Each structure stands twice: as structure tokens, then as C-alpha cells.
Amino acid sequence: MEQVEHEMQSICTIKINFADSTMMEKSEKEKLGSPMVVDRQQLTNVIKNYQKHLVTAEGETAICKSTIDVEFKSKEVSNITITDLPGIMNTLGQNETEESREAIDLLIENTMKNNRCVILAILPANNNFRNSQVLQRALKFDEDTQRTFPVITKVDLIDEGAEVGVVQLAKGGMTATR
Length: 178
What we know:
Elements: H1 2-8, E1 11-17, H2 26-33, E2 36-38, H3 40-58, E3 67-73, E4 80-82, H4 98-112, E5 119-124, H5 133-141, E6 148-153, H6 163-170
């Protein structure tokens, strides 16, 4: 019985894909860049630990070009790798530079252009999605929206009269160009 339960558990593999520019000792890169199997309870703490290593290596104000990839494998669901990307910078804040904005844009575009990438476009319901930069960028690499899925947030803040458009977006009936 114990063996069957173990076989049914999901496996999470986590690793850092280091950018060439990451300033870190080679031995540390090899250790953190090697896939590590963790259970779901450990995952959050391992990600936080990886983030600390990257912040130390890249600097607190730098945009990290390395990614932390989490791969889920399970007999119950399809295998998937998740990479969380930073949000699009529309304006620069304190301690942010144009170089930071360009680094984020490059990271987002390099990920979106991968044909195996599923794009989860996070869209607040209280904003006009036709002005959404994430949808505009997604359409650049996924014209038929076969890999782009809207994730609608703040549904409790929908402006009166905008409900129909949000419902159409949720059903996949609208994109930024339709």
C-alpha cells in the first residue's frame, strides 16, 4: 500500500537556468543549476532560497536574467514546467533604469516566442483589456491565440457595462485585435 501511495505522488523538480552574466562561483552554479526533486511542502521554501541566491549574485536592483524553473510530473496530470516572469514595466520607478525595462522585455519575449510556451495573460477586469500590453505581446508570437489564455483578476471591480466584454474575453471570443 505504501509503495502505491508513493507512486501516485506528484514530483516537483526545480532548478535555476543561469544566464551567462550571472556572477556566482562555478561550484555554486553547478549545485543550484542541477535539478532538485522536492515535495510540494518544500517548494515555496526552496524557491525563496533560490531567489536569495540570485539576488546575492545579481544585486538587489538588477533584473535577473536567470530563471527558476519548476517542473511538475505526475501520473494524474500532464507534465508542465512553470516559469514566472516579471510584469511589464510601463513607467520607471525609483532605482529602476531603462536597462531594467529592456532586460524584462527581452526575458518576456524570449519566453513567449517558444512555441511550447503557454502564455497566461494576467488581466485585471477593471482595466480595458484592449489596451493590454501583455495581450499585444502575446499576439506577436501567438497570432491565433492557440497558446494564450487570459487570467482575469479583480472581477469584483468590473465597471458597470463592461461585463459583456469580460465574459467574451473569458470565453476566448476576443483578443486585443478582434
